[in-house]
Design goal:
Helix content is 29%, strand content 28%. The relative contact order is 0.26. The chain has a single domain, classed as Jelly Rolls, CATH 2.60.120. The longest helix has 25 residues. The chain is built from 5 helices and 11 strands. The chain is of the alpha+beta class. The chain has a 4-stranded antiparallel sheet. A 4-stranded antiparallel sheet has the order 2-10-6-8, with no helix packed on it. Strands 4-5-7 form a 3-stranded mixed sheet, with no helix packed on it.
Length: 241
């Protein structure tokens, strides 16, 4: 009898949890949180340790554009590594941001950029993550899988200046977000989203920060699992009664 009552309680608990949380999963989107991204953070360094970055930079030809700037930035790795957000279980992400930062030690503009176009220097594209052509100070992002980016298969560079579509990037392809970008499709296999400021070089002397709000739409499989939990929990409870 005690065992039966215990099973009843477990079934009811499963059903209750599923019923409570399932509607939140099924809704149009869920809030992933608010995140601070400072002006020194660069998506160029996403997915790698400081030692890995240093090894690649040391092996690069001395003639690589802005290589010395890159090596200086790597020394400040703890400040320059980008903000990371888990996006496992989501099919699209929407981002909005506010605040002021700058590609110099003073002054500031919002995450939409300052109207001064710049393309990422060649040295900062050595790590398997594409560069970006956009206004300085633009908020940018990059999706990665759990794997380390592969320099031999760096995706093509996107240009916000040329009006490229930023809502459907590949893994390791930097995309411009600006003040807001909705319904960004998560690439198949992506597990992480990294955020940073767009600059051409020398992130070490940047300043300020922006606050980012990220929302996401769950994958259909996530909704299906919660629905099954609710159904089986209720069926089990009724049978035990």
């Amino acid at each position: 009898m005690k065992r039966l009552e215990s099973m009843r309680r477990v079934s009811w608990a499963v059903a209750t949890v599923a019923i409570v949380f399932c509607p939140q999963t099924i809704q149009a989107s869920v809030t992933l949180g608010d995140f601070t991204v400072n002006g020194k953070q660069s998506v160029t360094f996403a997915g790698r340790t400081q030692a890995e970055l240093q090894a690649i930079a040391d092996a690069a030809p001395a003639s690589t554009d802005r290589l010395s700037d890159l090596k200086t930035d790597i020394l400040d790795y703890n400040n320059i590594k980008p903000t990371e957000i888990s996006i496992v279980g989501y099919e699209s992400v929407s981002i909005s941001a506010g605040g002021e930062w700058n590609h110099t030690p003073s002054g500031g503009t919002g995450p939409g950029g300052n109207g001064n176009p710049r393309t990422t220097a060649a040295a900062y594209q050595l790590f398997g993550i594409s560069g970006m052509a956009a206004d300085l100070n633009t908020l940018v992002g990059v999706f990665l899988s759990n794997a380390v980016p592969d320099p031999s298969s760096t995706p093509p560079l996107l240009s916000d200046l040329a009006g490229d579509d930023m809502s459907n990037p590949d893994i390791a392809q930097t995309f411009a977000i600006g003040e807001s970008l909705s319904d960004i499709f998560v690439p198949v296999g992506a597990t992480r989203l990294f955020l940073g400021m767009h600059d051409g070089r020398e992130w070490i002397n940047n300043s300020g920060y922006v606050t980012v709000t990220a929302e996401a739409v769950p994958e259909p499989s996530t909704i299906f699992v919660w629905s099954l939990l609710a159904i089986f929990g209720l069926i089990g409870y009724k049978r035990l009664r």
